[in-house]
Design goal:
The complex is a heterodimer. Chain A is mainly α. Chain A has a domain of 298 residues: MetI-like (MetI-like fold, Orthogonal Bundle), CATH 1.10.3720.10. Chain A contains 29 helices and no strands. Chain A is globular, with a radius of gyration of 27 Å. Chain B is an alpha+beta fold. Chain B has 2 domains: 238 residues, P-loop containing nucleotide triphosphate hydrolases (Rossmann fold, 3-Layer(aba) Sandwich), CATH 3.40.50; 112 residues, OB fold (Dihydrolipoamide Acetyltransferase, E2P), CATH 2.40.50. Helices cover 23% and strands 38% of the residues of chain B. Chain B has 8 helices and 21 strands. In chain B, helix 2 crosses helix 3 and helix 2 runs parallel beside helix 4. The two termini of chain B are 29 Å apart. The relative contact order of chain B is 0.11. The chains are: A mainly alpha, B alpha+beta. Chains A and B meet through helix 1, helix 2, helix 24 and helix 25 of A and strand 6 and helix 2 of B.
Chain lengths: 613, 367
Amino acid sequence: MSVSQEGTRSPRSSYRWQRLFNRLKGYAVSPLYLITGVSLLFLAYTVLLPLWEILKQSLQWTASDARRVEGAVSGEFTLHHWIRVVSSEISQSLLYEPLLNSVNISIWVSALSMIIGGVLAWLTTKTNLPFKKTLVFLAIIPYMLPSWITSFAWISVFKNDRIGGSQGIVQMLFGIQPPDWVSYGFLPIVICLSLNYFTFFFLLISVTLGSINTSLEETASLLGASRFTVLRKVTFPLVMPAILSAFILTFSKALGSFGVPAFLGLPIKYYTIATMLHGSMQNRMVSESYILSLILLLVCASTIYMNQRMIGRRKSYATVGGKDSRKVLFDLGRWKWPVAIAVLCFMVGIAIVPMLILVLQSFMLAEGDFSWSNFTLHFWTGQSNPRIASGEVGVLVNNSIGQALGNSLHIALVASAVASVVGLLFGYIIVKRRNSLSSRLIEQVSFLPYLIPGIALSAIYLSMFAKPTMFLPALYGTMTLIILISIVNELPFATRSGASTMYQIGGELEEAAQMQGASWFKRFIRILLPLCHKGLFGSFLLLFISVMKELDLIILLVTPQTGTLTTLIYKYAEQGFQQYANAIMVIIVAIILVMYFLASKLGKADLTKGIGG
Amino acid sequence: MNLIELKQINKQFAGQPILKNIDLVVEEGDFMTFLGPSGCGKTTTLRVIAGLENPEGGIVRIGGTTVADGDKLQFVPPAKRGLNLVFQNYALWPHMTVMENVAFGLQMKKLPKPEIRAKVEATLGKLHILDYKDRYPSELSGGQQQRVAIARAIVTEPRILLLDEPLSNLDAKLRVEMRSELKRLHRELNTTVIYVTHDQSEALTLSTKVAVFSEGSLLQVDTPRNLYRRPRHVKIADFIGNPKINLLSASYSQENEGTGSTRIDSPLGSISLQDLIPPGKGKVTLAVRPEDMTISHEPTAQAAPFQIYAVLPAGSETLIQLQSGDTGLLVKEIGEQDYVLDSTVWLNIDPRKLLVYDGESGELLSL
């Protein structure tokens, strides 16, 4: 045996240089390696480099520091900004209070979402509740719409005239002035965010509950466990990984969310770390805002790390599948109808009513006045009237809205088209080079933007692209930058969707074409693309919806020329022109609903795929 | 002429050796079968020949040209090796019609359209599926899909046709039908075929040569007849043949110095073998095929007594399970036979049909 070992080793060493040459040549001409290399470079440039840049800049004196602070030299190393944020007289209001608020909100939002989503998921998958399909559809609506839609509705309903300027619906109908803590701040923020993010829990838990073989639960019942014990001892542990995934997702989303805390918190100076970040950016405290985004990122990452540790290997049974057996539904008995009606009312209340309120408001001249003469088309089609909203014209005849609509569509179309194709390529590498280092790298790095709250990511991009960087010119103020950041932000979803599409295409189908002499490019165009066009299209449409409703991500980056519908809403809401904001919101919702309809009709769009944990 | 040569092929997956020093020669016109249980390396060897996997060490030559050199890391792409492959699950492109599937390889060769059409139709005709040329794969039965996959592989007229467990997805009746189809095709096309299967009866009925794999090594390359009659290793003996060969542990010793006569003591009694195995002594394993034994109702010389444990009639043949102490034996008799359960019978064995394997290494001792 040892002789033959020697025999195979000796030619090897004599061919060392030839081996090296051939290996390198193999990498250079193999499309798979080339794409892998380009993908890794792209991710390094758009995800890893920005992280490094922001860290570096937070540790340097800036040019404006050099003018203000004695002994500061622009570009030199300093801990000044970190000390200022972490331990100075302003750190209480700059960092600790907003951070505490953010964490507090995130915990409560996660808990509340878990209860709403979990109960709803159990009711629609495991019981004999009627109207299940309607309920599932209603539950997905909040996920499709911008998260701050509920906050607008909330303001319209619970506004008080002490802070809001005019009275809300409650005050008008019942004559009671809602206290500030109901109208603004912690409570409404938690409620509005929960009503949006419970969808994560709902979708993830539903999928897992649906895949659990009923016989697992039946076995426990046969062994004498009560219904409650079965739920606690069998069902719950099996669903645990899904719950933890949804928890990570909700927690990090809530932590980084900007729109809702801005609309509901700022009027009473209730800051979260995201709104503080935005504020300090506007106050030219750029380095401080970088540090805030790094801290935000750190909190997110550590939550996720802890969760991963908790899930650990248990994740392996996350999809308890096996054969699709007969499903035995829990009989709600005489509670069936009362529960159904209650749940239905609740779902209509959170999914449909907010939108109706916004539509209604957009037709009302003065808020809170429900007399017939108060209804008007002014905010939609009206000409300039100096007495109303500083002479803004109606949204349908307003040129700046036309421009914003054009920008929104432009960004959403390009970003989602590029992201879905890039995601497909990443998915291809992940599937094709399974278990290799490069495949794992791509999988993990493309997942990173998921952990970076949108507003932090945009702070990073703002710094990185304010000046020419490496191969790219200064991108600040261009559509390209907004498109680029939208692509990067959607990479986690796009990659996952691409990988799951690719997993469904057997490797042999490509190998068969390889055997027939088709080049990689031909294989991709003639075999892979036609086979995954449905998945690709579905992913494109869902990405489109997601980009269309984005505010947190781009609010720091837009200029008047690159403004989108969402940033315009923010501008109007900030100025107090709520009806204009509502009218534009209705336009966005209409576009999103049309796209979702197309997605479910034409593509194999599956919302649940996008948020798998 | 040696068409395919494998020399010292080594291949690993994640540090685990999958192929260990495979040496193999396939001659032009052979119908060579790679046989072995799943995970034994037969499919990997096929993919190494096809060029879909690259070996870490060793050389593959096709028609005298080196197509893969694991030592120099030089590899010729699959399409330039003059071969084609039929995949286990057919791998038909679901978005193309039968016609488009089969024409794909010719299109890649940039043949003129009328020629492509003529060739595709001729091939489809040969496989009796011309009527389905405008259907999509999902509109075909399993057997028809199988034929399309074969048509796609042979339309480019490769010198070598590789088939990876092509019949494993078909039902039993269709499988037998396709066997004769494949055998006829091999003759008609005049190509060399390498065929991977775990079904030993497929291997024995189809091939001119069989290569038996086990745990990444080649155990034996031989004609089906030799493989059945003289398996070189006890593992092969155990694997080949249905019903299974009977294996018995025994010991052997020299009877008389210099006479070449050896005595074997086993549950079959004491058997004397004249010039049938080399001299020596120790533990051995006896192997005897169920059809190589006869049962008699009366005691005869050298016959061992057994009890009838079970009788299993199967139409054209009858299997009889015998028992004596801890030893169970299976005997096959032609036609319908009947025995009284638990009655005693005597078993006769032709010593020349007895295979003797070394008890330690499992190598064949019989000369």
